[in-house]
Each structure stands twice: as C-alpha cells, then as structure tokens.
C-alpha cells in the first residue's frame, strides 16, 4: 500500500471577481522513504498543493475535487480534531518562515512538550526528555529548550521547526522552501539534517524548492508545476536528463547549473498566466516556442512516456501515436 496517494486534487481561491484556479487535478504518490521535489515558478501552485494536502488552507480556499490517501486511509472526511492529530502523526509541514509557525510568547520547548503530551500521550517528564533529545538531534543544545523563538537565529529557528515537525514521528514531511531564507552554509546543513532524518526514519518527503540542484541531490522523483497543473513528473534523473515538456526544458535551461554551485535562476521569457482566467488550450501556449494551433484550442492530456514518467503536451501525444 502506498504511503501517500493523491488523486486529482483541485483547489480554487474565491475572490470577488471569480475563482483563482491555483491547483488543478494534482495527482502524485509517495512510497516510504521516498522524496519527491515539487518545482515550478512562483505562483505555479506549489504551496497551495501542499496546504491542500494537510488541509491548512485560508478561508477563501475551496477544495473542489480530489482524494488524499495516507496508507490507504482517505483523509477527506477528517474532522478538525482528527486533522490536528494527522498533522503531527502522519503528515507534517515545515514552512519557509519558521517564525510564523512558532508561538512567539511561549518557550519553544513547551510547544513541543505540549504536542508530545497530546498526540503521543507522554507524561510531562517523558515529553521533556524527548524534547531535549529532539533538540540534540537537530544539533541545538538541549539547554535552550527554555528559550523563546526570538532568542534563536534564523537557522536555529528552522531547525526548531524541523524538531517540531518530526516530534511525533510523522510518516511524511513537507518542506515548503524550508531553507530559502537561510544563508548558503546553513541551507546545506538544514538540508543535510532533513536528508539524514528521512533515511533514518524512512519518512516520505515532499520538498518544494526553486533550487533544482537541491532536487537533483536529494529527490528520487520530481513533479514540475506550471499554472496550477503538474505538467511533467518522473524519476529525477530521467526528467533532468531528458525533459519532455517544453516548460520543464525552459525551467532547466533557466537554471544555470543543476549539478554544481547554486545560482539564482534566470527567468523564463514571458509571464505565467493569471489564474483567475487562464488561457484556453495548453496553459503554457503563450510562452511556448513549439506552440501550434492545436495548443491554443485544445488542452493536452497526460501522456505516459515510460514507467513513472508522464508529461502533458500535444507533441508527446503525437509521438506516442506515431510509434
Ligand atoms: P511561490 O513559489 O511564490 O511560493 P507557489 O507556487 O507556492 O508560489 P501559490 O502560493 O500556491 O504558488 O499560489 C498559486 C496561485 O494562487 C497564485 O496565483 C496566487 O496568487 C494564488 N493565491 C495564493 N493564495 C491565495 C489566496 N489566499 N487568495 C487568492 N489567491 C491566492
Ligand atoms: Fe507547447 Fe503545445 Fe506542448 Fe503546450 S501543448 S507545451 S503549447 S507544444
Ligand atoms: Mg509557495
């Protein structure tokens, strides 16, 4: 049974002039210990997809369709109380801005102790001991459990967030740009820490990042999002070596060196569409160098290219038909 199976997840935001179609027909899956990278330009819907998975969406968001199964159990009908438990025990998230997730007026240790008492049913003493262990695990001196969030540096807060996220041994961890705000050295340390924990605990991981080199180094598979849709997904090596969708190719070309030093990505010519009224046909057609009349009029379907590798482009459908 798969650790995570997401089918056709569709989330829109309601605004007074219509719906922002931020996340449409997202399907992805994850096995135990596997990491999948979720990439795509800003506003492509990565955070919306992640928040839809843990049902932590803002009030104006509407999940229009889709199912989310964790080890076969559909969490669609979970109550708010069940969801709180699920977010500690099954699928935890680390956000980019750790400050937002930590309560500024409570000692960081107490926040973890409380979660362990509620969700792991530990005694006060055991929860305290476990919190100290978690601090050591994320390489922070356990004496600091009594400090407040503002007493930590950015990198440390991010590590506290990781300690919090793994406190109840979740099966899946989502990192939504967990290191973007950090300097390069600390970034590498935090990523290494996540990687070690993933291997030790066989956690599944969804890593959202703009940094394709991080995906190349850490993720078994990659899903590329454009304008609210997954346009290509597959084994990382395959997708990076032989990208099949024109957008994936543009994204890779705009990223100077996947295997080497990290650089800021150059931009792809043109802008992503407004998701309040995305263009008909293929959503990428206004920026695609291989566009044809068909692309403007008809949305392409997902094409299976090889086991586990799929992409959504008319050119591929033609190729498959010709074969
Ligand atoms: P980034 O890389 O910048 O973090 P992203 O891929 O995570 O971007 P999302 O934050 O999921 O993108 O946003 C997807 C789309 O949904 C964007 O068009 C964004 O403007 C829109 N959006 C996000 N949150 C809301 C909201 N609360 N209300 C309305 N629209 C929203
Ligand atoms: Fe480009 Fe057409 Fe393929 Fe869309 S369907 S990516 S516009 S070739
Ligand atoms: Mg985001």
Task: Describe this protein's structure.
The chain is 36% helix and 24% strand. It is an alpha/beta fold and 323 residues long. It has one domain (4-105, 148-322): P-loop containing nucleotide triphosphate hydrolases (Rossmann fold). The strands form two sheets. It has an eight-stranded mixed sheet, with helices on both faces. Strands 2-1-4-5 form a four-stranded antiparallel sheet. Strand 9 (221-226) and strand 10 form a beta hairpin. The protein is globular and about 65 Å long. The model has no long low-confidence stretch (mean pLDDT 90). The structure holds adenosine-5'-triphosphate, iron/sulfur cluster (SF4) and magnesium ion. Adenosine-5'-triphosphate (ATP) binds next to strand 1, strand 2 and helix 1. Adenosine-5'-triphosphate is lined by residues 13, 15, 20, 22, 40, 42-48, 58, 60, 275.
Quick summary:
The chain is 36% helix and 24% strand. It is of the alpha/beta class and 323 residues long. Strand 9 (221-226) and strand 10 form a beta hairpin.
CATH second-level architecture: 3-Layer(aba) Sandwich
Strand content: 15-25%
Number of domains as seen in the coordinates:
1
Element string (H = helix, E = strand): EEEHEEHEHHHHEHEHEEHHHEEH
Shape: globular
Q: Tell me the major beta sheet.
A: 8 strands, mixed
Total strand segments: 12
Ligands in the model, by name, code or SMILES, are: adenosine-5'-triphosphate, iron/sulfur cluster, magnesium ion
Continuous helix count: 12
What is the fold's blueprint, element by element?
Layout: E1 4-15, E2 18-30, E3 35-39, H1 46-54, E4 61-70, E5 73-74, H2 80-89, E6 91-94, H3 98-101, H4 108-119, H5 124-137, H6 154-166, E7 172-176, H7 184-201, E8 204-208, H8 212-218, E9 221-226, E10 229-235, H9 236-241, H10 246-254, H11 293-297, E11 302-306, E12 309-312, H12 314-322
Helix pairs in contact: 4-5, 5-6, 6-7
